[in-house]
Amino acid sequence: MKKLILSGVLILAALSMQGCSAVMALNGQKEPDFSIVTKGQSKAIVESQPLKPISTEKLANGNLVSTYQYVMGKEPSAGRAAVYVLLDCVTLFISELVTMPIEMGKNGDIKFLKVEYTPDGQVVRVG
To answer: What is the per-residue pLDDT across 68-116, written as a single tens digit (0 to 9) for each?
Structure first.
């Protein structure tokens, strides 16, 4: 009876781990498209990118300087998720012991970007 309960617990534990790394691979943050962030572009278009404004300061000439935070290296990947699901099926979920820590280690790099705008909201300077 003890072996049956232990087997049931192990099966439930393996099933609960199923897809954890695959779900983590599908979740993430898209990287900004910096080809859009150029001189003359409007503030609304710049802020349509996955950039999180963390501070804004007003300069003496009336321009605004916004500092944005973004993450590089944490893009979602359907291909990686599909490979993880395939590995789960082939190895009976034992691959989760390897793939889940790999995904947990993918935090990405936090970066910052300063953009100067005119009072009208046009980009004057990037960087």
So the answer is: 999 998 899 999 999 999 998 899 888 988 998 989 888 889 999 999 9
pTM: 0.70
Distance from C-alpha of 77 to C-alpha of 56, rounded to nearest angstrom:
33
Tally of structural domains, the chain? 1
Domain that holds residue 61: 2-126
- By the 8 A CB rule, do 96 and 23 touch? no
Q: What is the spatial distance between Cα 89 and Cα 101, in angstroms, rounded to a whole number?
A: 18
Concatenating the DSSP letter of every residue in 18-82 gives TTHHHHHHH---PPP-TTTS-TT-BHHHHTTSS-EEEEEEE-TTS-EEEEEEEEES----HHHHH
Q: Are 113 and 70 in contact (CB under 8 A)?
A: yes
Residue owning tokens 């278009």: 45
